Amino acid sequence: MSSSKVVVGLCLVGLAALAVYAYQAQRTPAGTGPAAGEANPAVKAAPRPTAVEAADVRLVAMPDELSAVGTLASSQSVIVRPEIAGRIAAIGFADGARVARGAPMFRLDDATQKAELAQALAALALARSDAARTEDLFRRKFVSGSARDQANANLQVAGAAVELARARLARSRIDAPFTGIAGIRKVSVGDYVKEGADLVNLEDLSSLKVDFRVPESNLGQIRTGQSVAVSVDAWPSRSFEAVVEAIDPQIDAQGRAVLLRARIDNRENLLRPGLFARVRLLLEARPAVLSVPEEALIPTADGQFVFVVDGDSVRRVEVETGIRRDTRVEIRRGLEVGMTVVTAGQIKLRDGARVSIAESPAPRPTASR
């Protein structure tokens, strides 16, 4: 009898729970249940635009140039050497000083040359007197014509001996052949030097020459008078202007290159012979070239393309590129001035994708050296 009561009680409890559940279900508003959003799974939010960075297509100066290397050389350069052997008696300049053309640089001991000149002058005087007497005797028929001819020949020989002695004396003095800067001399007063010995170098630094080579394929683009920009490690932040003054008529058969010579005005006296030079030869100025930042290009197996911004979407455009200068690329075909191209964020894009242009980050300041 007790078990029957328990069963009846459990049934009553179940019925009460069902009644409470039904009552709550009736009070819940339609569409507020946990499954309300699942009633129409086809409704989805529209995709957000992709944030990208962009830049305008614009015209910039992009000169067509050739790069080469060369070495600076003096406009005129000579190593001063004596033509005769002798002992150095005087030096007429200071090391590294400017020397004017014709100024005495070295004088050798010339005692022997002066004595030879004096001897030759005495012999000349004697020959001149002898020739005069012979001429007088010839007119009075006391000597033959051959005697007169012999006297005149002796006079000419004596005159030539004087000129030879003067030339030897002149060789004992070494003058500057042109105006320039003297180097560091290798001898001192009292040194005995042989003929042809190196004494000092003399350099004309008013202008400098730079020789460089360009490929033979550019032969039709080079000419005298073209501008050349020269840079050297001694002045890393400065470019020196030069002008092509000569083109070698013969092409180097080994390197297949053409030798050019340009001249640099060095009146500021900043450059020195022997400096290694980097040369940029201007072939064509090209002041207005269509260009985009190089980061806008996307290379593929079939070529290169960019994403052009049209309103709030982009379209893929294939382009033909040219030379590159200072992080910009020449565009020969595919774009026009005023277009806007994507420069960052292209990896997320496809043709027709919606975009929003974000502000490009400011460039980082360059640390000063």
Task: Report on the architecture of this protein.
The radius of gyration is 48 Å and the shape is rod-shaped. Among the domains are: 52-62 and 288-357, Beta Barrel (conserved putative lor/sdh protein from methanococcus maripaludis s2 fold); 66-75 and 204-284, Efflux pump adaptor protein, beta barrel domain (Elongation Factor Tu (Ef-tu), domain 3); 110-171, Helix Hairpins, CATH 1.10.287.470. It is α+β, with helices and mostly antiparallel strands and 369 residues long. A hairpin with a 2-residue loop joins β17 and β18. Mean pLDDT is 85; it is low at 28-39 and 365-369. The longest helix is centred in the middle third of the chain and has 29 residues, at 111-139. The chain contains 3 helices and 21 strands. The strands form 4 sheets. A 6-stranded antiparallel β-sheet has the order 2-15-19-18-17-16, with no helix packed on it. It has helices at 2-27, 111-139, 145-171, and strands at 50-56, 58-60, 64-80, 86-91, 98-99, 104-108, 173-175, 180-182, 192-193, 200-215, 227-232, 235-247, 257-265, 276-284, 289-293, 298-300, 303-310, 313-325, 328-333, 340-344, 355-357. It starts with a helix and ends in a 12-residue tail after the last strand. 22% of the residues lie in helices and 39% in strands.
SS element count, helices? 3
Give the name of the CATH architecture of the domain at 66-75 and 204-284.
Beta Barrel
Distance between the termini: 104 Å
What amount of the residues lies in strands?
A: 35-45%
CATH topology of the domain at 66-75 and 204-284: Elongation Factor Tu (Ef-tu), domain 3
